[in-house]
Design goal:
Layout: E1 8-12, H1 20-30, E2 34-39, H2 42-54, E3 61-64, H3 70-84, E4 89-92, H4 111-133, E5 140-146, H5 158-178, E6 183-190, H6 204-214, H7 223-234, E7 245-248
Parallel strand pairs: 1-2, 1-4, 2-3, 4-5, 5-6, 6-7
Bound molecules: ligand N5H.
Ligand N5H binds at residues 15, 95-99, 102, 147, 149, 154, 156-157, 160, 192, 196-198, 201, 207.
């Protein structure tokens, strides 16, 4: 197993125990890393605190951070700097789209809905990377989460697909900017997992079934698998990789 002992990682976007962010946090914890969790608002704080406390030998820090607020972001990373000095990576696991925009046709997307989704799901990575750069004195690794709908048209993913396309392009431009500081930026394109984001998706079972039938591995992926891949991207084993989109999807993306 890869050791990340003595290294500190910020995990943004844990909503509950099903979150991919939580899978990443658990894998990081298993690798011996120190963890800092950020939560968007008070409503989410209690759940994140309970999960953080459930980790064996918890040595974790919680910081509030709404990524749509530049002030919050600045305060959050200043507080992290004050508490730990420097960090070695950030897991950005944050996205949002209004429910009504995740059905029907993309052509009907409102300006406000589009901008909100871009702000929370794509621009936030740029802002987080800028803040994180100031706290990554020894270089680092930034990992964000995307989905195949950012590369091709997937039913109902609509404006989230466009936000993920912007996120994936942002990964490449950020990788180019931050490479000279030995900061790597990559994304993981996870197969569908039943998270809070997926809640209310009417035909989610059909989507999962299609993966079981068509993906090379003939099964769906788990939070743990995404978490372990993130640990690889956070570790020195991936030191030659940046600007990459790693598909952790049972190979589904290679299928026509
Ligand atoms: C093709 C699909 C199925 C249809 C699309 C699902 C898109 C989900 C992503 C967004 C981020 C979900 C979202 O913003 C839901 C909100 O409108 C309502 N939920 C909330 O506000 C909850 C409480 C909070 C915690 O959620 C968020 N996001 O803040 C894609 C699926 C097969 C795969 C999938 C589910 C992809 C993905 O991007 O998550």
């Amino acid at each position: 197993m890869i050791s990340l002992k003595g290294k500190t990682f910020v995990v943004m976007g844990v909503a509950n125990f099903r979150s991919i962010a939580w899978g990443i946090a658990q894998s990081l914890h298993t690798a011996g890393a120190n963890l800092i969790f950020t939560y968007a608002n008070e409503r989410l704080e209690k759940g994140v605190r309970e999960l953080a406390d459930s980790l064996e030998n918890p040595n974790t820090i919680l910081v509030q951070c709404d990524v749509t607020s530049d002030e919050d972001l600045a305060k959050c990373f200043a507080s992290i700097k004050e508490q730990v000095g420097s960090i070695h990576g950030v897991a950005h696991c944050i996205a949002f789209a209004n429910k009504e925009d995740l059905k029907g046709e993309f052509v009907d997307t409102s300006r406000a809905g589009y901008l909100l989704s871009q702000d929370v799901s794509a621009y936030s990575l740029v802002a987080v990377a800028r803040e994180a750069k100031a706290v990554m004195a020894e270089g680092g690794s930034i990992v964000t989460l995307t989905y195949l709908g950012g590369e091709r048209v997937m039913q109902n993913y609509n404006l989230m697909g466009v936000s993920k396309a912007a996120l994936e392009a942002s990964v490449r431009y950020l990788a180019n900017d931050l490479g000279k500081y030995n900061i790597r930026v990559n994304s993981i394109s996870a197969g569908p997992i039943r998270t809070l984001s997926a809640k209310g998706v009417g035909d989610f079972n059909t989507i999962l079934k299609e993966i079981e039938e068509k993906a090379p591995l003939r099964r769906n992926v788990t939070q743990e698998e995404v978490g372990d891949s993130a640990v690889f991207l956070f570790s020195d084993l991936s030191r030659g990789i940046t600007g990459e989109n790693l598909h952790v999807d049972s190979g589904y993306h290679i299928m026509g």
